[in-house]
Structure formats: structure tokens, C-alpha cells
């Protein structure tokens, strides 16, 4: 049965301008997680927009380091975001075998919620052979 972690996070996204390619973007991501996940992350995002308004995609990879329900370690999240003429979908998944230390074997997904200007998360995860928090 998956465990659930919830909390908030702050994010800083900085566009990178080392090269100019129309409709393609590259950004750095820095996050501070609070709640059941007390951690920081650093990552990279690539994006493009379509010729039709409200159509775009992005992919991102971020390394998260800290504690999850008190268990210390790091893991990698990968994002796949699609907006198809205003209809959006987002998947954020723990990269296979990316967990370290007490988070070794971590698997799961993270849902990002933005409401009233506040970013929060709900993470469902499993850790093999670990006692429940």
C-alpha cells in the first residue's frame, strides 16, 4: 500500500539564455519543499510552445535531497507536461533506482497543486522493506 506525503514548496525558475532558438526554452529549477518532504531540489526544464495558442510541452529532471517522513536521502523526479489547446496533463514520477541512503528503492509519483498562488504537493510512494512512518 503506498504511503502519502503532503506539504508545500517554493520554486524559482530562471530562464537560460545561452542560445536563442525560437519557441524552445531552457530553465533552471530550484525548490524548497516543506511538510512530510523536507528537502531542496535543483533541476533543468526544456519547453516548447505550439503554433496554436495554449499548446505547449515541457520535460524536466530534478534531484531532490533531504528527508521524506524522516528518512534521509536523495532521489530524482522527472516531469512530463502537456498542454493541448488548453487541456493540460502533468506527470511527475520518481526515476527508477534513483533513491539513495534511506530512500533506496523509492518509487512513486508526485502531484503538483497550485491554488491561490501557493504551490503544494501530494506524493504517493513506496519504499521496499521499510517500516511505515
Question: How would you describe what is shown here?
Answer:
By secondary structure, the chain is mainly beta. The chain has strands at 3-15, 24-35, 37-49, 56-68, 71-84, 87-94, 107-115, 118-126. The protein has no helices and eight strands. The chain has a single domain, classed as AOC barrel-like, CATH 2.40.350.
Short description:
By secondary structure, the protein is mainly β. Helix content is 0%, strand content 68%.
Secondary structure: elements and pairs:
Elements (H helix, E strand, L loop, with lengths): L2 E13 L8 E12 L1 E13 L6 E13 L2 E14 L2 E8 L12 E9 L2 E9 L7
Antiparallel strand pairs: 1-2, 1-8, 2-3, 3-4, 4-5, 5-6, 7-8
> What average pLDDT do the residues reach?
93
In this structure, how is the largest beta sheet organized? 8 strands, antiparallel
Name the shape in a single word: globular
Protein structure class: mainly beta
Order of SSEs, N→C?
EEEEEEEE
CATH first level: which class?
Answer: Mainly Beta
Q: How large is the count of helical segments? A: 0
Strands in their spatial order, largest beta sheet = 6-5-4-3-2-1-8-7
- Span from first to last CA? 13 Å
